[in-house]
Amino acid sequence: MALSYKARRRVALLVLLVGLPIYILVASVLATTIAPDSVLVTLLLYVGLGIVWILPFKSVFKGIGQADPDAPKQRFDDDP
Predict the structure, then answer these.
(1) Which residue, 80, 77, 30, 79, is CA-closest to 52?
(2) Helices (H) and strands (E) in the chain, counts
(3) Which residues of 6-41 are buried (b: 16+ CB within 10 A; e: fewer)?
(4) How far apart are CA 5 and CA 10, in angstroms?
(5) Residue 25 reports pLDDT greater than 90
(6) Residue 43 burial (CB count, 10 A)
(7) 9, 19, 49, 59: which could form a disulfide with 15 (CB 3.0–4.6 Å)?
(8) What is the pTM of this model?
(9) Measured distance CA(13)–CA(45) in Å, rounded
(10) Count of domains in the chain?
(11) Is residue 80 part of a domain?
(12) Average confidence (pLDDT) over 20-34
């Protein structure tokens, strides 16, 4: 089932405002408990976790920055 443009915008906003801060907390706790004292391994873990969070939400965020494709087209016939 495909989400409408407005529903995708709402889900994207929810993910960014609620889901991402929770993911950041979980990722930082995970990184501090799993990662050894090596700075390079910790950096790679943070970079990997920073990329992994977006993969499930790729379809939700795709095209959000563009105009609503379902909105009626405005015509400007009266150009001065």
Answers:
(1) 30
(2) 4, 0
(3) eebbebbeebeeeeeeeeeeebeeebeeebeeeeee
(4) 9
(5) yes
(6) 12
(7) 19
(8) 0.69
(9) 26
(10) 1
(11) no
(12) 88
Specify if 67 maps to a domain: no
The yes-or-no verdict on residue 78 having pLDDT over 70 is no
- For tokens 């700075």, the residue is 39
pLDDT reading at 80 higher than 60: no
The set of residues, in sequence order, having a beta carbon less than 8 Å from that of 57 and lying 6+ positions away, is 12, 15
Judge whether 75 lies within some domain: no
30 alpha-carbon distance from chain centroid: 20
Specify the 3-state DSSP secondary structure of 78.
Answer: coil
Domain that holds residue 15: 5-59
In this structure, which amino acid lies at residue 53?
W
Mean pLDDT rounded to a whole number for the chain: 83
pLDDT bucket at 14, cuts 50 / 70 / 90: very high
Contact 27, 54 (CB under 8 A): no
